[in-house]
Amino acid sequence: MQLKCILFDLDGTLLDTSYDFSYALNQTCSDFKQPRLNYQDVRKTVSQGGLAMTKLAFPELDEEELETRRQHFLKIYFENIDRHTRLFPGLEAGMRALAKAEIPWGIITNKPTWLTERLLESIEFPSAPKTIVCGDTLAVRKPDPQPMWLAAETCGFSPEECLYIGDHPRDIEAGINAKMHTAAAWYGYLPESAGESDWPADLHFGTPYELSRFLIKLAEQ
């Protein structure tokens, strides 16, 4: 596996954003006199996006009312986006290794630009990402391969020279569609329905520490 570029999903793979999502969603529940949700239930829904999280909190609402709640939730999340969000514990060493070896890396996320940019303002990485492709950068998003191709092109490599790491079956599908190598981050926000058959990835990482060890070895080659 000749890898020259590492690409990450954002939420649940590179950054642990679940606590701030849980805070914002439960504040929304309180604002609309709805029972608060269990953190673990919210965590398992994060990778499915803001609408899925809003539906989790307000399952009986029609489309119009649900959108009102979603906008309220996202406003609170934007205002509190960096309360607890950090690089996943254990990934620091791997990211430092990439920086020391000058291996380019980037982010491909379905998170919209306005939230992604606000979030990344508060995060310091050992080296800056070479590319950030958001859910609204193009007219399509993962699992369509076009965001993957754009990230690879921006970094100056072919898709075959890139590894894409994600915590949702959609991420692995996107990487495969783009002809990239893929890795499953089992420590992320996996949906309950996700099983081994959903993850035809080249590599599997059970913890951020396992991923870090892989990145360190890559940097030493």
TrEMBL record:
SUPFAM superfamilies noted in UniProt: HAD-like
**Which molecular function GO terms apply here?**
hydrolase activity
Whether Metal-binding counts among this entry's keywords is yes
Q: Does the record's keyword annotation contain Magnesium?
A: yes
For this protein, the record's InterPro entries field holds: HAD-like_hydrolase_sf, HAD-like_sf, HAD-SF_hydro_IA, HAD_2, HAD_sf, PGP-like_dom2
The record's section on Pfam families has: HAD_2 (PF13419)
Organism domain of life: Bacteria
Entry keyword set: Carbohydrate metabolism, Hydrolase, Magnesium, Metal-binding
NCBIfam families xref list: HAD-SF-IA-v1 (TIGR01549), HAD-SF-IA-v3 (TIGR01509)
Q: Which PANTHER family match?
A: PHOSPHOGLYCOLATE PHOSPHATASE (PTHR43434:SF23)
The protein's name in its UniProt record:
HAD-IA family hydrolase
